[in-house]
Amino acid sequence: MLFGLRVISKFVLTLGLFMSLNSACFAVDAALANLSFTKKMQLAKAGDPDAKMAVGEAYELGLDTKLDPVRAAKWYREAALTGNLEAQFRLAKLVMKGAPGMNADKATGIKLLQAGAKLGHAASQNMIGLMLQNGDGMPKDEKEAVVYYKKAAEQKLAVAETNLGVMYLKGAGVERNLDEAFKLFVRGATDGDGWAMNNLGGMYEMGWGTPKDLSKAKDYYNQAAAKGIAMATQNLARLTAPAGATATIAPKQ
User: For the residues of 23-61, what is the DSSP string, one character each?
Assistant: First the structure.
């Protein structure tokens, strides 16, 4: 019994790692993405709201121009003022992080996220849930975190489906329910989230919410590893190690 509890504890910690790593992403319109930075800037200065978003992304990621988070924030703000909630989300993340020439301002970033979440922006809802869960910039409240994760998961945001699944797995802010956790990881994996795939591997390995199936566990660990999830690679190595071999998997701090 003591060994079983230790295994469960380690597994929960492993699944919980993604909570601070997973983030939602967005894609600029394909037609705009294929334009040169100069052309994007011309359109943005002419008032095109999507081009403003594209210029902000270019400065944030260094696409066809130098990295410049301050200018990225400026153009995300311009796009946000046209009602672009994705730009507002990006602006919030930059403001909270700060950069040379731009002081970090978590309180303002949270206000931007809350405004976007209230208007139904799934990535903002997920981020608020994450911050509530971790007590990051606001009082820790796991029950309220679950509320926000559910809102985002209802919109099929894969990372939120996975985050919510972990809450059900851990019994954090909600009654522990392995069946519900399994279903949410299936949804997250179907929607392409690598951590959901890793977590499904764990559920099949442990027999939680589904019959134990090491073959399926290995398959999902493989899928997650292909997505770049290092923990899945370690989990796979552990399962495929020769009999009698031992493997130590220590969660990152």
Answer: -------HHHHTS-HHHHHHHHHTT-HHHHHHHHHHHHH
How far is residue 37's CA from residue 103's CA, in Å, rounded to a whole number? 27
The CB-based long-range contact list for 108-117 (8 Å cut-off, 24+ gap) reads 109/137, 110/137, 110/138, 112/80, 112/88, 113/89, 115/88, 116/85, 116/88, 116/89, 116/92, 117/148, 117/151
Report the distance separating Cα 8 and Cα 1, nearest Å: 11
Give me the residue label for tokens 């890793």: 198
pTM over 0.85: no
58 CB-contact burial (10 Å; exposed 0-12 / middle 13-18 / buried 19+):
buried
pLDDT tens digits for range 93-147: 999 999 988 999 999 999 999 999 999 999 999 999 999 999 999 999 999 999 9
Tokens representing 94 are: 């930059």
DSSP class of residue 19 equals G
- Residue 239 has a CB neighbour count (10 Å cut-off) of 15
Query: Could you tell me which residues are beta bridge partners of residue 102?
Result: 99
